[in-house]
Design brief:
Elements lengths: L24 E5 L7 E5 L2 E13 L2 E9 L3 E2 L9 H5 L1 E6 L5 E2 L146 H10 L29
Parallel strand pairs: 5-7
Antiparallel strand pairs: 1-4, 1-6, 2-3, 3-4
């Protein structure tokens, strides 16, 4: 039930010409430690190396932590210690020496995380990214494309409660294998728009709560054929009080497409400013 939810920038980095990409995952740290220090994670102990301090997305980077030759396949957070999660302010690179297949909850509740790499390159084998950035309340933006996530099937809660997130890519292309997007952007109140076309989501079956309580969201798209296989749209736009898009057109598509929608309750609840709201049956709102 969604009620259980409520109990819970992309890096703008200029690379020097000719600079080789890092083989490590590099985490950017803000810590009062004056020298190098060891950090215990669920994937081993690593050293946070002191660097010359520099400003970064409204905070300061004091250390860098490199993670190499690790297999991320178990779907667990970097650490269960909130004090560790709290000093991570950015991800500079995913690196090429690590193996990523399951990144579920990897950065969950990293509330100080402000930036991630400007592409998903290196994560091409990831199938499960559920809860990956859940409750990353300081994250403001993500890469401008989904390319690099071609194997991803589960993105449920991936960005849930990213309350500072203002935008997402202008296309869904790159997510062709995705089947579960439930709660993917639930409770992202700063998000203002989604792509005009749903194309690129041809495998999607579960879109329940996908944008629930995104109170600043104004549109619902105009090309809906990418939702052809969706069977669950419960609370898809529930609580999107700023919605002004043509939700009646979306309702018509969802209610008449060959692969029937099985679950639709509260799909458009409280979208009272949207076009065609009064024309939608009560069972959908």
């Amino acid at each position: 039930m969604y009620d259980m939810l409520t109990a819970r920038r992309r890096i703008m980095m200029t690379k020097k010409s000719g600079e080789a990409p890092s083989t490590d995952m590099i985490l950017l740290i803000n810590s009062p430690n004056t020298g190098d220090f060891s950090v215990n994670t669920n994937y081993g102990a690593f050293t946070a190396a002191k660097v010359s301090e520099y400003p970064y997305l409204g905070t300061t980077v004091t250390h860098k932590l490199s993670i190499s030759n690790v297999t991320f396949s178990l779907g667990q957070p970097l650490s269960n210690d909130f004090t560790v999660l709290e000093f991570i302010v950015g991800v500079e690179s995913w690196g090429s020496s690590n193996t990523y297949t399951n990144t579920s909850a990897l950065f969950q509740e990293c509330t100080s995380l402000r930036g991630i790499p400007d592409s998903w390159a290196g994560l091409g084998a990831v199938t499960d990214a559920s809860y990956m950035f859940d409750f990353c309340t300081s994250l403001t933006s993500i890469p401008s494309s989904w390319e690099g996530l071609g194997a991803l099937t589960d993105a449920s809660y991936m960005f849930a409660f990213c309350i500072s997130l203002t935008s997402i890519p202008s296309s869904w292309e790159g997510l062709g294998a995705l089947t579960d997007a439930s709660c993917m952007f639930a409770e992202c109140p700063s998000l203002t728009s989604i792509p005009s076309s749903w194309e690129g989501l041809g495998a999607l079956t579960d879109a329940s709560y996908m944008f629930a309580f995104c109170t600043s969201l104004t549109n619902c798209g105009t090309i809906f054929t990418g939702l052809a296989k969706v069977t669950d749209v419960r609370q898809l736009f529930d609580g999107c009080t700023g919605m002004q898009g043509d939700i009646h057109a979306l309702y018509v598509y969802l209610s008449t497409k060959p692969i029937a929608v099985s679950y639709n309750s509260y799909c458009f609840r409280n979208c009272t400013q949207a076009v065609g709201y009064d024309l939608i049956p009560s069972s959908w709102k």
